[in-house]
Amino acid sequence: MRILIGVLGLVLLTACTDHGAQAPATTAGPPSSAIIASERDEALLAAATAEAPAALATLERLVNIETGTEDEVGMAAMSDLLEQELRARGFDVTRHPTTGGREGRASVGENIVGRLHGEGGRKLLLMAHMDTVYPRGGLAAAPFRVDDNRAYGPGIADAKSGIAVILHAVKLLEARKFTGFDTLTVLFNTDEEQGSSGSSALIGQLAGESDAIFSFEPTGVQPEGLTYGTSGIGSVIATVTGRSAHAGVAPELGANALVAAADFVQRTQDLDQGPGRLRFNWTIARAGAVRNIVPNSATLEADVRYPTNESFGPLVAEVRRLAVQPGVEGTTIDVVTDPGRPAFTADEAGRALIARARGIYDSLGHELPVAPIIGGGTDAAFAARSGKPVIEALGLPGYGYHTNDDEYVLVDAIPRRLYLAARMIMDVAQAQ
């Protein structure tokens, strides 16, 4: 996930693909989001506390395998490790090749799917991504380390913390001999940081086969909470075509594509609506190759974050309207748009999952606030297309996603996050 720190630090992660908060967290919400009371399970809490050192050791193993989205060697090693870990916990494991890619970048590796059959109850899907934004070599620059209450490492929060929580929450259930579910399905996918183009179909399929979906992106450290929604992440590419000319002898004979592109940027600046709403920002520009030639082409790329799936269409229409009349005579502007990862908004059943999680945290003496929406996008959006309830941000509290040496998770949160995940699985699997 490409993740940026938000207003109060409630972050999910950019893949990201890109995760980032846009609105402050709140404990308020509609009636369906009222806290569902939960009695503390002392035995489970003690087991989660005892399991925390093992979870931290797993985190170190995960961080020490570099898994940039395009890293074939690292992804193969991670897939082997995760298959081994799931099989050790009794899961049947299948591998699903990652296909596709975005923006000329190939997706690599295999998505790992584990299935554990129980003795009755509901079908649950637990998912986290194994890829990170860091190219090979990032680990050498920022090796795994523990400093007081912080464990550091590339990708440790986004989303290797989610993988570790899943593996050790399942281990808690195994030790408790809890089999009160129909099927427990685990998905570790390979390309979330590039939009999940090679795994979104698999996510949708598995979500459709499930009764509820738990997504394990990290939560922010201040506050440590959840979210009712994640933004869609789309793109706009504008190609400006002009006419070249000698920049010194007769520039007036040309039609400067660079100037037209700059004018277009200026005329579309107001499309950005600010925090918590639709975000539109030009982030990449290319034009010209030789200093003394008026450029005959230019390309602009914009990052778009949309709070609802219905809000992307009107933005596209307005961009196209403004492109019809370029600011430089003799130039044309062609616009290509891609909605990319859809927006996610928790439905009533999803809000009930959030309410249950808040009740579990309340029993531990911790508050679990909820943000209305964050600026980042996650795989929760693809899962939600199934119409099944989804809860996001069940990973560890973390900070500094996509910043390499600054990325960390809070060590003292491991017991309560393991407890939360295990208790959610137990309660939701048995819910009527």
Please explain how this structure is put together.
This protein has helices at 42-63, 72-88, 138-141, 156-176, 200-208, 257-268, 312-323, 348-363, 380-384, 414-430; strands spanning 3-4, 19-20, 92-97, 101-102, 105-106, 110-117, 123-129, 145-147, 150-152, 183-189, 212-215, 219-220, 226-227, 229-230, 232-241, 279-287, 297-306, 332-341, 344-345, 370-371, 390-391, 397-399, 408-410. By secondary structure, it is an alpha/beta fold. Strands 3-6-10-7-11-21 form a six-stranded mixed beta sheet, sandwiched between helices. The protein is elongated, with a radius of gyration of 23 Å. Helix 1 crosses helix 4 (156-176), helix 1 (42-63) packs across helix 10 (414-430) and helix 8 packs across helix 10 (414-430). Strand 4 (101-102) and strand 5 (105-106) form a beta hairpin. The chain folds into two domains: 3-230 and 343-430, Aminopeptidase, CATH 3.40.630.10; 232-341, Alpha-Beta Plaits. The chain is 31% helix and 24% strand.
The CATH topology assignment of the largest domain is: Aminopeptidase
Biggest sheet: strand arrangement? 3-6-10-7-11-21
Overall number of structural domains: 2
Number of strands: 23
- What is the number of helical segments per DSSP (H or I, 4+ residues)? 10
Largest sheet: 6 strands, mixed
